[in-house]
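Q: I'm building a small set of examples for a reading group on sequence design. Run inverse folding on the following structure and report the sequence directly after it, with nothing in between.
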């Protein structure tokens, strides 16, 4: 297999028709680690919008049960990507996501902003740190993927192109990024969770590195001081070096799903997609003593 094996496969597909296949190749064969980091960073950005950060803080889910909320978010999105939006497992994951969201008063504008980060941030991340940037086919396919997901979430006025998503995200952040104690609390809990994944002094170092990867408006919205410029250059340079080293590796022969990440730690005995997430009104699924979910990928 040549290094451009999967890119050649992508170029033979139609991004308006085969967007799920293209997005799957990109996220599980070409950029599995980068996609997971970028989507995590996309979600993290949304905490800087006070209406979002305040809500997440008020529920206590992202501050008191941070690892579980991280795991649930990863596994629900992963189920959609792995199985397909219209497959039984994908529909189940989308239904679970919609059930959670309906329990809260969330505006369409905020929904649309979160969706826009999932379109825009991964492309920008790969432009900066990937072993190669997204191709035009991948940009179009990713846009169509999240347009389709947004439609299944009943989000209104979804942009038609990447450029429209980008314009919406940037404009929304300029108008809404601001300090809020709730958003800061969710940010702190998230950074503490990330630090806990690394042993000893690496944890605080990763927290500092994360701050170096933030742009100035995002840091300002959370009330973080800018890191020393030489340190920021070193961290960003190290990320770019990683991309150049990954470019030398052979292409993946098997997909790497987010559920396989060592950072997903809350379900060592497995999970059911229908039981992931929050249940403000109580979990409707019946439970019996000794009834353990299946192991592995939740099947």
């Amino acid at each position: 297999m040549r290094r451009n094996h999967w890119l050649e496969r992508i170029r033979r597909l139609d991004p308006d028709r085969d967007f799920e296949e293209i997005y799957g190749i990109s996220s599980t064969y070409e950029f599995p680690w980068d996609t997971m980091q970028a989507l995590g960073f996309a979600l993290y950005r949304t905490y800087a919008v006070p209406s979002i950060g305040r809500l997440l803080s008020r529920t206590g889910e992202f501050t008191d049960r941070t690892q579980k909320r991280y795991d649930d978010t990863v596994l629900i999105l992963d189920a959609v990507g792995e199985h397909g939006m219209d497959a039984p497992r994908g529909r189940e994951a989308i239904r679970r996501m919609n059930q959670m969201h309906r329990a809260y008063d969330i505006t369409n504008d905020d929904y649309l902003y979160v969706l826009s980060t999932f379109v825009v941030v991964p492309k920008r991340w790969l432009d900066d740190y990937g072993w190669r940037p997204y191709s035009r086919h991948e940009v179009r396919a990713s846009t169509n993927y999240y347009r389709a997901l947004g439609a299944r979430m009943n989000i209104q006025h979804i942009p038609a192109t990447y450029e429209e998503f980008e314009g919406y995200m940037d404009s929304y952040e300029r108008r809404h990024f601001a300090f809020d104690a709730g958003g800061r609390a969710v940010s702190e809990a998230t950074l503490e969770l990330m630090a806990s994944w690394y042993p000893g002094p690496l944890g605080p170092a990763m927290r500092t590195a994360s701050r170096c990867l933030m742009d100035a408006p995002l840091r300002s919205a959370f009330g973080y001081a800018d890191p020393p410029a030489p340190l920021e250059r070193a961290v960003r340079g190290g990320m770019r070096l990683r991309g150049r080293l990954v470019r030398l590796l052979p292409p993946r022969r098997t997909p790497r799903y987010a559920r396989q990440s060592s950072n997903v730690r809350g379900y060592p005995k497995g999970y059911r997609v229908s039981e992931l997430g929050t249940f403000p009104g109580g979990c409707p699924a019946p439970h019996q003593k000794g009834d353990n979910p299946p192991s592995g990928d939740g099947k």
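The chain has 14 helices and no strands.
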